[in-house]
TrEMBL record:
Pfam families: ABC_tran. It is found in: Cell membrane. Residues 2-236 form the ABC transporter domain. PANTHER family: AMINO ACID IMPORT ATP-BINDING PROTEIN (PTHR43166), L-CYSTINE IMPORT ATP-BINDING PROTEIN TCYN (PTHR43166:SF35). This is Amino acid ABC transporter ATPase. InterPro entries: AAA+_ATPase, ABC_ATPase_HisP-typ, ABC_transporter-like_ATP-bd, ABC_transporter-like_CS, MetN_ABC_transporter-like, P-loop_NTPase. Keywords: ATP-binding, Cell membrane, Membrane, Nucleotide-binding, Transport.
Length: 240
């Protein structure tokens, strides 16, 4: 589904991604771990072309994406993203949030977009909140709306950047549950998270990033029970 080849990205003097190569198969769930500042968000943002890598290439379904030539809005439709801080439109109802991109970017007609949005709100368990505004929702509910909003564009891949890190502990489970169901349905997902229970249960592969380099990757059972790289060992000790 996605092939990343020799990706590099610097901010000024700081090289944040150093020659990253990886492949993500269709329906695969990859959990990306690593200390703060290791480049996890930058990698996700490059996959969604919110950041343009300095060198290397990204292929989506075999097609190399050229930031200069390809229509990046089109690419972003295929790669949905969910952020730590939800980023809902505060002046729009929940339903309007979910309908916004299909109507204004994809030019789907309003009644079809509304129908689809309602289905997605049912899927994330928020059909009864369709007409309320984001400020009336809990963090967990906001994040579930953000997931529904991303899904409304019918992406081929979903990227999650610490989707539960801003939530009170008792709200984490409801968001992870929605993500688990998505994985079960076969969605291709790249998830940055510190929720190791989720990674054990759902990930096909865990990838450990340290200082912009993939230092280790493998099946969650192997990574968590017998991490080989010293950086992975140290990181896992810190977070549990
Ligand atoms: P992570 O998500 O793993 O915590 P990030 O990808 O957010 O790491 O950041 C990696 C490094 O790049 C950090 O040192 C961060 O300060 C720096 N960085 C990220 N985005 C920018 C930016 N837009 N401008 C300058 N530095 C940035
Ligand atoms: Mg980050």
């Amino acid at each position: 589904m996605i092939r990343i080849k020799n990706l590099t990205k610097s901010f000024g003097e700081l090289q944040v991604l150093k020659d990253i190569s990886m492949e993500i198969g269709k329906s695969e769930v990859v959990v990306l771990i690593g200390a703060s500042g290791s480049g996890k968000s930058t990698l996700l943002r490059c996959l969604n072309f919110l950041e343009i890598a300095d060198s290397g290439e990204i292929q989506i379904e075999g097609e190399k994406i050229h930031p200069q030539k390809n229509n990046l809005n089109h690419v972003r439709q295929e790669v949905g993203m969910v952020f730590q801080h939800f980023n809902l439109f505060p002046h729009m109802s929940v339903l309007e949030n979910v309908m916004e991109a299909p109507v204004h970017v994809r030019k789907v007609n309003k009644s079809a977009a509304r129908q689809k949005a309602i289905e997605l709100l049912i899927k994330v368990g928020l059909a009864d909140k369709a007409n309320v505004y984001p400020e009336q929702l809990s963090g967990g509910q906001k994040q579930r709306v953000a997931i529904a909003r991303a899904l409304a564009m019918e992406p081929k891949v979903m990227l999650f950047d610490e989707p539960t890190s801003a939530l009170d502990p008792e709200l984490v489970g409801e968001v992870l549950q929605v993500m688990k169901e998505l994985a079960k349905e076969g969605m291709t997902m790249v998830v940055v998270t510190h929720e190791m229970g989720f990674a054990r249960e759902v990930a096909d592969r865990v990838v450990m990033l340290a200082d912009g380099v993939i230092v280790e990757e493998g099946h969650p059972t192997d990574i968590f029970t017998s991490p080989k790289h010293e950086r992975t060992q140290r990181f896992l000790k810190q977070i549990v």
